[in-house]
Design brief:
The longest helix has 20 residues, at about 365-385. The model has no long low-confidence stretch (mean pLDDT about 95). The chain has 3 domains: about 30-80 and about 145-230 and about 340-415, FAD/NAD(P)-binding domain (3-Layer(bba) Sandwich); about 105-140 and about 230-335 and about 455-550, D-Amino Acid Oxidase, Chain A, domain 2 (2-Layer Sandwich), CATH 3.30.9.90; about 415-450, no CATH class. A 7-stranded mixed β-sheet has the order 8-7-18-19-20-17-21. The protein is α/β, with parallel strands linked by helices and about 550 residues long. It is about 25% helix and about 25% strand.
């Protein structure tokens, strides 16, 4: 059974439309950023700074020159990451600020990389160059997103939270903005007494920074015929924040257990544990979604992992923080999975939507922020030159900036490293070591990437211990701990093929960290039920054969320290 052979009911042009709103149903803005992630926030701040230096250009953009829309309740509500980050983009945006003024928990105090077996933690004598974090800082991405949102508003950026961008508005062969989602629809999509029709938002330029499963990004690439050299692939990260009794004195990364090393399982990933000040830690597990065992559950693997002596010692006597659990997909295809063009007429693609993640270094936040900065600078140059926004050449400067930057160079050096692990942990690790030493020159060439939904699934019958509610937690308790308070009777935003075989249904049930998929019995037969209310918008279903579409604005998790 191959998940990709059971596509969800989605039409290619379903999320692209011409302008259709009346004057009362349309909002005109200057430049629109979709998604309040680090890429969009950095880009909006940078563009606003540049516009302050050119009052005539700013005046030409109207009363709302720079606008961000985001489906979360506030900037940072849907942001989740490790996060150990390179602070360079923060310094670029705020050159006069001191490091202690940024929303960081401090510099990396030290680090250890372990190879785990079920019962042992073996410290590597030398930290691989790709995983060294000297000069980097520890942060909460949701906290940093909230801080960047506040700075953006201080700079004059308009932020519209609880606003889901549902369709791409295209006119004359160019992106003209977005149609936002309606609110107040019942489970069947019918208006209720509190119904609010979503307006169209028209802009000179649109920047798509929706995150790893960019809904409108996919629509734009398909509509304008922009290809990727290889399909994008993803991992799923599950994370918790814990209040602990004693401070953690270093950053911990691991490889090996609880993932299986054999090539036949296709399991790739690792874990992390970072100090968040003296009394909290961030701990998590990341696993590639190209795995093949239908009974695998990344959430339950993570719960099992916390029982290992290495982590149990860190967590001993502590408790999971309120709103201390979350999950998110991460793009892992790297260089070969980038769009061949990073823009289409009228729109630029930034951050995780483009796929700017360096898997071996575990870094993507500063790539995202710099891509937003580069897009802002290219847009400003076009506005100042009074270039035609609908011309494809008007955003060519953004492509040129990224392609000539450290983003392109560093992703190219590790272009085949993720693929090496198709041969299993040990052989893949040896090949990846040679790639690191030669900066990708050996073995060289292009190693093929296959989509997560293209691998045949089998079932080894893995079962998971019952959660104890103290160290380990089940999926429903964890989804509640994400702050998810989605309305029970909103329309379902998840599409799966109802004719999918039972093995694929099990794959989705086990894969989902929030318990969205359940077996119900109908006429004596199993039927897959989709409980969209539980969804935390991690995006894993899109990678493994289904499709996540925009939910009602304001639904989903409410992260604070993730």
């Amino acid at each position: 059974m191959i998940p990709g052979q059971y596509p969800p009911p989605v039409k290619p042009e379903e999320f692209v439309m011409p302008p259709a709103a009346s004057a009362d149903g349309c909002i005109d803005v200057g430049v629109l950023f979709v998604g309040a992630g680090p890429a969009s926030l950095a880009g909006a701040i940078r563009l606003s700074q540049l516009l302050d230096s050119a009052p005539d250009v700013k005046a030409s953009l109207g009363d709302m020159p720079v606008v961000i829309v985001d489906k979360g309740k506030y900037p940072g509500a849907h942001l989740l990451s490790g996060a150990v980050l390179n602070p360079g983009a923060f310094r670029k945006l705020f050159p006069d600020m001191k490091m202690e003024e940024f929303p960081f928990f401090g510099p990396v105090p030290g680090e250890t990389v372990y190879f785990l077996t079920r019962n042992r933690a073996i410290a590597l004598p030398v930290i691989p160059p790709t995983m060294q974090n000297h000069g980097n800082y520890i942060a909460s991405l949701s906290k940093a997103g909230k801080w960047l949102g506040e700075k953006a508003e201080e700079q004059g950026v308009t932020i519209l939270p609880e606003t889901a961008a549902q369709k791409l508005v295209v006119e004359g062969g160019a992106v003209k903005g977005v149609r936002t989602g309606d609110k107040g629809l019942d489970r069947d999509g019918k208006p209720m007494s509190n119904f609010e029709e979503g307006p169209e938002i028209h802009a000179r330029f649109t920047v798509l920074g929706e995150g790893p499963q960019g809904h409108l990004t996919g629509a734009a690439l398909a509509h304008f015929g922009v290809k990727r050299s290889s399909p994008q692939i993803y991992s799923l990260g599950v994370k918790e924040v814990w209040e602990v009794k004693k401070p953690l004195d270093r950053v911990i990364h691991t490889m090996g257990w609880p993932l299986r090393a054999g090539a036949g399982y296709n399991e790739f990933g690792g874990s992390f544990c970072y100090p968040l000040g003296p009394d909290k830690v961030s701990i998590g597990l990341v696993a590639g979604l190209d795995y093949r065992d239908a009974s695998l559950s990344v959430h339950d693997l993570f719960q099992q992992m916390k029982r290992h002596a290495l982590f149990a010692e860190v967590l001993e006597g502590g408790k999971r923080a309120e709103r201390g659990w979350g999950a998110k997909t991460i793009p892992e295809g790297g260089y070969w999975s980038l769009p061949e063009k990073l823009h289409v007429p009228g729109a630029a693609i930034v951050g995780d939507s483009a796929g700017f993640v360096n898997v071996p270094t575990l870094k993507g936040i500063h790539y995202a922020m710099w891509s937003g900065i580069y897009a802002a600078e290219a847009i400003f140059d076009s506005l100042r030159a009074k270039a035609d926004p609908s011309a494809d050449s008007s955003l060519a400067g953004y492509d040129q900036a990224v392609r000539s930057s450290f983003i392109e160079r560093e992703l190219y050096e590790v272009r085949n490293m993720r693929q090496a692990f198709r041969y299993g942990l040990y052989v893949g690790g040896a090949i990846a070591g040679m790639m690191t030493l030669t900066k990708g020159a050996f073995p060289g060439g292009k190693w093929e990437i296959h989509s997560d939904a293209s691998f045949p699934m089998f079932d080894t019958g893995l079962e998971w211990p019952k959660a104890d509610g103290k160290l380990t937690f089940d999926k429903l308790d964890s989804a509640f701990a994400s702050g998810n308070r989605s309305r029970d009777n909103q329309p379902n935003h998840i599409r799966v093929n109802a004719a999918a075989p039972e093995l694929l249904g099990k794959t989705w049930m086990r894969m989902c960290p929030a318990g969205v998929y359940e077996w119900h019995e109908k006429d004596g037969k199993k039927e897959l039920f989709v409980n969209g209310t539980n969804c935390i918008h991690c995006g894993a279903i899109t990678a493994k054969g289904g499709r996540l579409t925009p939910p009602e604005g304001g639904s989903g998790p409410e992260y604070t320290l993730m």
